[in-house]
Specification:
Blueprint: E1 2-8, H1 18-30, E2 35-37, H2 45-56, E3 63-70, H3 72-84, E4 88-91, H4 97-100, E5 106-109, E6 116-119, H5 121-129, E7 141-146, H6 154-160, E8 165-169, H7 183-190
Parallel strand pairs: 1-2, 1-3, 3-4, 4-7, 7-8
Antiparallel strand pairs: 5-6
Length: 192
Amino acid sequence: MQPLLIYIHGFNSSPLSLKAQTMVTWCRTHRPDIRLEVPQLPSYPQAAATYLDTLIRPLLATHQVGLVGSSLGGYLSTWLNARYGIPAVLINPAVKPYELLVDYLGEQVNPYTQEVYTLTSAHIDELKALDVVDLDYTERLWLLQQEGDEVLDYRQAVSKYAACQQTVEPNGDHSFVGFERYPSEIIRFLGL
């Protein structure tokens, strides 16, 4: 089966984010055999989940799939892990985005794509519907977390993923400072 890495970006982000591009560059240089998908996700939660599900489901029979999800992408990666048992590396993942994003209701502008869209309470409900309360595939999840995350409370992720492999670093920030240290370990963990 061909190795396939899917990088799932976070809220108001894009395939051009630094971590996404770090993975793209590393794979092209060191593992050009890996098929790499770094989609620009729809801005709304259920649309993003449907997009990812539609992308992944037909590839499971022919590819060894691994996920890297950052922030809200980590939340979506957890949902996909629960749905299909796909291994995933979660980078400063959002644990309760439905609480955090209440502060972002209203008009949004994605700084990468310049897309203007409106976040409503219905989208918060969509996020809640994607929540994975009980993790079934803990051995297939690796938490990469920095305590200096200024956007999310790192303790939520450390607690939720307590049964999973964890690398928790002091300091850092939401962007995960020094991420370039991890691509080879990520690929190894994902079995790609």
